[in-house]
Amino acid sequence: MIRVAVVGGGYAGMATAVTLAARGAKVVVHEAGPVLGGRARRVQTRGETFDNGQHILVGAYGALLGMMRACDVPSDALLRLPLEMRYVDGFVLRPMWLPEPLGLLGGLLAARLPWSERLGAIRFMIAMRRARYRVEPDCAVSELLANHAQDGRIGHYLWRPLCVSALNTPPDQSSANAFLAVIRDSLAGGEGASDLLLPKTDLSKLFPEPAADYVRARGGEVHVSSPVRDLEALRKEHSHVVVAVGPHHLDALIPGVLPPYTYQPIVTCYLQYTPQTKLPFPMLGLADGLVQWAFDRGHLLGERGRIACVVSAQGEHQQMAHDEIAAHCARELAAAFPGIGTPASSQVIFEKRATIACTPGLTRVGPETPLRKVWLAGDYTDPVYPPTLEAAVRSGIRAAGCILRGS
Questions:
Q1: Of 76, 86, 169, 260, which is most buried by a Cβ count within 10 Å?
Q2: Dihedral angle at the C-alpha atoms of 197, 202, 205, 209, nearest 10 degrees?
Q3: Which ranges of 282-371 would DSSP assign to H, the alpha helix?
Q4: What is the bridge-based pairing of β-strands 306-312 and 263-272?
Q5: Residues 333-390: tens digit of each pLDDT
Q6: What is the Cβ-side half-sphere exposure of residue 228, based on CA atoms within 13 angstroms?
Q7: The dihedral sign for the CA sequence 159, 162, 165, 167
């Protein structure tokens, strides 16, 4: 029997474990933290429960959605909405009910933009489709947009926010090819590919914990608060080991595998207002300040009056204290929604190394390592995709595939 130790109980590690358990392997998962999920997990502080980030899924996340179905995650764990980029200043972009890519093209034509930008965006999409959503050599997203006259209002409301949300890297530093891979699979994908999927449960319950139940039901083991400091012991006890830790933790286990990556942060600021407080839409963009997106957690998770403000990638907020960030977010919400009042409390979760910086020509590592029968999984190992939950799950499936093929 194949016996596999998985180091790390995040989305990548649990995808590895589920894939192997489904094929009859004996799997043992070791998660260093007290909760499964890695960099997408439930956090408990001061007697309250939060997520360590407000993740958005899209309909194109086929690997993650397939894993969730396999683990019997209820379909109502996600709120599915047709793509709608809605901002507090009134700008809205939504595709029309037409087969893609006609739906997006129709939505661009109907958007409140200068006609030159509407037609330019359509020409851009057609050009990228002809180029198979790839440019050589890779360049920054800002350069790609400038080359195609997409750096006006359409860039402000669509392309730049999409880039920062998907790649968690500023457009002037982001890989155009990683960005185009996102456009290809979502905006230019098939029916439902661009739908927004907003979690209605915490991130640990969304997949990692049901995955643990799946593995245990098939004779496997999942241990939390179980750090691994010595791979040699695991290698002696198991036929294979998959290391699915964050890239900044990998060097302690397998030195010298990764290039010198840089990292980008994500800040999530939870503001608690009165229970009657609601946003007019579950997810709204604030295009001109520190906050990029605001989420109504009451609408999504029943956390009445709680608004989650998301600030992705680097910026001035990195120099702010947590209370300064909370005050800044509260001021921006008050300006956007004059009747919202003053929050009674706040909680700032600052993931300083949330993702690797997804830069042009980024060196990607695969699942292979210098150690025999030891494999890697993690969002940073995907050959094309930016570091997302989908990339993490794909990497876990890929690592499991190496083992199952007898590599």
A1: 169
A2: 120
A3: 297-301, 322-336
A4: antiparallel
A5: 999 999 999 999 999 999 999 999 999 999 989 999 999 999 999 999 999 899 999 9
A6: 27
A7: negative
One CATH from 3.10.180.10, 2.160.20.10, 3.40.50.1100, 3.90.660.10 for 263-356 = 3.90.660.10
Question: Do 231 and 89 form a contact (C-beta atoms < 8 A)?
Answer: no
* Backbone conformation region of residue 373, classed left if phi is above 0, alpha if psi is from -120 to 50, else beta: left
**How many other CB atoms are there within 10 angstroms of residue 356's CB atom?**
24
Strand partners, 87: 285
Low-confidence ranges of the chain (pLDDT < 70): 96-103, 407
Max CA pair span of the chain: 66
What does pTM read for this prediction?
0.95
Fold of 3-45+58-75+200-259+365-404: FAD/NAD(P)-binding domain (3.50.50)
